[in-house]
Design a protein that fits this description.
Elements (H helix, E strand, L loop, with lengths): L2 E5 L5 E5 L2 H8 L4 E2 L32 H10 L4 H25 L3 E2 H6 L1 H11 L6 H12 L9 H24 L5 H6 L16 H15 L1 H16 L4 H6 L1 H12 L4 E6 L3 E3 L2 E3 L4 E5 H5 L33 H18 L4 E2 L21 E3 L2
Parallel strand pairs: 2-8
Antiparallel strand pairs: 1-2, 3-5, 4-10, 5-8, 6-7, 9-10
Length: 378
């Protein structure tokens, strides 16, 4: 059946959506909420009301109309011109870090010297973090998102980084108001896309803009870092497919996104009774939405567990679906389409420097990744 019954850790009888069509249907249905305070937590104990409401501006955890207002403010900032400028900067940043990786000498840790710093600097470019504060920003961003591995999972360090980053974002909002530059945060602060707020609702408060910056950081750093490391691992496992990557980076990246499915699952809660593919979901029921399973649905993709960079993996759900589909997906694709070919062009003999069973995977139910990726190329 399209929806399968399941029991959550708190004893709640909920549902699993796991095939491609059903996952799309749930994610596109406005009768389902993303708010954590309405949800039976599928990842651990907790009933609705246990989680606090997300702060204003944290648009990834809000339903309409708040989500609509926040998203509309942001959409106008991800322009074709800005993406083109960021792509040019990414080429420079990628080349510089490949130089640094080579200077480290073989073997070296691809996570530390490439997969973490390249997306970190791109977030700095996106938000307009001043050069003199980028080291400070990146250090706390890595702690906050868990992109540095096991040590970053220590709660005390993460909470401290969260507090510092909140203050940093508020300072950035004030800075962009006084001295705007060509970046997303300046555009939000100064209402560039909708100066009189006639299209996107009330003007944003400083706290809302700071929270939106935090959400962009959370959505853009850890995800791209782990796609770079896990994607590189997949390519080293299948060196015969590197030629397909270099011949058609667009198709190769789509297949890597589908195959890896970095975010394995999300969840939604029914706001009212809703029938999905013939199954009635009652108001208050939470549906565990399995993105990775949907991306490996044999009814949608032939031989779904096989990595085939020439597949043309259209319609995958690696970035979600519906109104909460990742707003930064175009930038993420640009990063991957530039970084992977550059890496394997510079190091055509790139290979693991340790046995694969010695690699340490991050203990996360939300976003998978590697703590370290020792590689060699000579």
């Amino acid at each position: 059946m399209p929806l399968s019954p399941m029991t959550y850790p708190d004893g709640h009888a909920g549902w699993r959506a796991h095939d491609h069509a059903t996952v799309r249907a749930v994610l596109a249905d406005s009768r389902f909420s993303i708010r954590p305070d309405k949800m039976h937590n599928p990842f651990g104990p907790g009933s609705p009301g246990d989680a606090p409401p997300s702060p204003p501006g944290a648009f990834t955890d809000h339903d309409p109309p708040d989500h609509t207002r926040y998203r509309s403010k942001l959409t106008g900032q991800f322009t074709v011109r800005r993406m083109r400028v960021l792509a040019e900067r990414l080429e420079t940043i990628t080349a510089s870090h490949l130089d640094s990786l080579e200077a480290q000498g073989s073997p070296a840790d691809l996570v530390e010297h490439f997969a973490v710093p390249v997306p970190g600097l791109m977030i700095c470019e996106l938000l307009g973090v001043p050069f003199e504060r980028r080291t400070e920003f990146q250090q706390d961003a890595v702690l906050l998102t868990g992109a540095s591995g096991a040590e970053a999972g220590e709660a005390e360090a993460m909470f401290a980084a969260f507090g510092r980053m909140q203050q940093f974002m508020l300072e950035m909002v004030a800075l962009k108001r006084a001295h705007p530059t060509d970046d997303v945060l300046s555009g939000l602060v100064n209402g560039e896309a909708d100066p009189d707020n006639s299209l996107t609702g009330d003007p944003l408060t400083d706290d809302e803009m700071a929270a939106m910056g935090m959400a962009l950081l959370g959505g853009g750093l850890d995800t791209t870092t782990n796609m770079l490391s896990l994607g590189a691992l997949e390519l080293m496992r299948s060196p015969a497919q590197v030629g397909a990557l270099l011949a058609d980076p667009d198709a190769a990246v789509e297949e890597l996104l589908r195959h890896i499915s970095l975010t394995p699952a999300t969840a939604r809660t029914a706001l009212e009774d809703a029938e999905i593919e013939g199954t009635l979901v009652r108001a208050g029921d939470t549906v565990f939405v399995e993105l990775r399973s949907a991306n490996h649905d044999p009814a949608r993709y032939a031989d779904p567990d096989v990595l085939d960079l020439a597949r043309g993996a259209t319609g995958h759900l690696a970035f979600g679906h519906g109104i909460h589909q990742c707003i930064g997906q175009h930038l993420a694709r640009i990063e991957l389409k530039i970084a992977f070919p550059a890496l394997f062009t510079r190091f055509p003999k790139l290979r693991l420097a340790v046995p694969e069973d010695e690699l340490s995977h991050r203990a996360s139910l939300v976003i998978g990744g590697l703590e370290r990726l020792p590689v060699a190329w000579d």
